[in-house]
Fold this sequence. Notes:
Strand order of the largest sheet: 6-7-8-3-9-10
Radius of gyration: 18 Å
Number of strands: 10
Order of helices and strands: EEEHEEHEHHHEHEEEHHH
Oligomer: single chain
Bound molecules: adenosine-5'-diphosphate, magnesium ion
CATH architecture of the domain at 3-90 and 169-252: 3-Layer(aba) Sandwich
CATH class of the domain at 3-90 and 169-252: Alpha Beta
Amino acid sequence: xxxxxxxxxxxxxxxxxxxxxxxxxxxxxxxxxxxxxxxxxxxxxxxxxxxxxxxxxxxxxxxxxxxxxxxxxxxxxxxxxxxxxxxxxxxxxxxxxxxxxxxxxxxxxxxxxxxxxxxxxxxxxxxxxxxxxxxxxxxxxxxxxxxxxxxxxxxxxxxxxxxxxxxxxxxxxxxxxxxxxxxxxxxxxxxxxxxxxxxxxxxxxxxxxxxxxxxxxxxxxxxxxxxxxxxxxxxxxxxxxxxxxxxxxxxxxxxxxxxxxxx
Length: 263
Ligand code: ADP
Ligand code: MG
């Protein structure tokens, strides 16, 4: 069993503190959702967990199976079994989705054993075909250049395929940066629903209130102003769907609305 534990996490971008004491534990086999309005620090959490250099951890700790990951490079985190969407957000013209996946698998294998010759092409093709069928993806997708002109939904499709191929212990999936993209959320949710099981823990991050139409998390967390302010089961997501975020803002937001917009 794998376990990601986030304790009292404080993160700043430049001079500005964005995460203000966030606590969360995710174990393999569990599906968690973090929901919260725009600007509350959801993506900051995802970027921090993936080790983005602009996000400075000023306090708190993050451990994966007991190891402090905050000092590790992104690829080291990935090798441990942590999967972070947006790990490779850039478009790579000339590198197909399939080639990218094969390199990622081989890098992982070589990290474990420098003598490893890499996955054979027939084995790779077979695995890729199986995963794409499982995820109901069109075979032609594997031949496209990674993220080159991809829509939000296609980027998510590439991520889910990467997740299927790398078989992480814990995966963190943030919504697209383009904001509310139902197509992307649907792709992520179908992928998570298909791939989830006792060996996979998932954190889905979204501000979309009707989340339960797509995914059935056991744990739902509401984030506000850099913290998780409420945690519960699917009933919490249902409550958000009915009530929106206003009650959360009233209860927990100590930042004046104008100030948030100006940031
Ligand atoms: P969410 O994903 O919940 O919408 P973000 O984590 O993207 O929120 O942003 C949280 C806060 O951090 C916002 O106030 C945003 O303006 C600020 N922020 C995000 N990225 C940067 C950055 N690169 N530089 C400065 N401020 C940033
Ligand atoms: Mg975001």
